[in-house]
Amino acid sequence: MTPHLVADGLTWTPRGAPPILSDVGFTVPQGQILAICGANGAGKSTLLRMLYRYLRPDAGRVTLGGDDLWALPARAAARRVAAVLQEQPTDFALDVREMVGLGRTPHRQGFAASGARDAEIIAAALHRMDLTRFAASPFGTLSGGERQRVMIARALAQEPELLVLDEPTNHLDIRHQLEVLALLRGLGLTVVLTLHDLTLAAEIADTLLLLHRGRLVAHGPPAKVLTPHTIAATFAVHARVDRSGPTPRFSFHL
After folding, report:
1. For the ABC transporter domain, which residue ranges apply (predicted)?
2. For the domain 3-65+161-253, what is the CATH superfamily, name and number?
């Protein structure tokens, strides 16, 4: 399949410190999901920041649909890439509908007010994330899981072609974890996300990328990537992989 997202040789080093990411590359076809897994400090969030244009790579290139992502004007990039991060605002004096409406900002010209199409897109995003009943509620009064769903709804309202999510199942109960992952599968978007749970990653992702200390350990279909050897190299634990079911299950020990 033709790659939609291409990362080639991505490297980033903070000033006066060792590299956090070194020569990492991968491709993601249109509409597929890539899950990035690794231990804390492996460079997962740094890699995501290069994809949503928060950190410019010291070396390497990111292209989306053939366009150099870092060569695009900021507003053009914001129309094409949406990010959902672990950090959630808590003190916004906005209700849920207004928060989701912020996703329409890159599509507005100047000080133009939102129109009927914006309202339809916002309503659809609220419905998709089961938030319609909270539309008029102050954002700051919601639980952590509810705020997480608002952030995803805001990203959907942005109508991106690439959706980047940093641990999107954090703060969610089991039911909403499964619902969010099922939603991501049905969006038809190119999705890159980080996950700690290898079982969830194997269930949702078309391909997995394992990182260890900023370097790529393995990249490919979950069945080929998640082996006892690669898990040991990534997480410094021993693993047993049970493949008797439709998706693998894991047990770990030191």
Report:
1. 5-238
2. P-loop containing nucleotide triphosphate hydrolases (3.40.50.300)
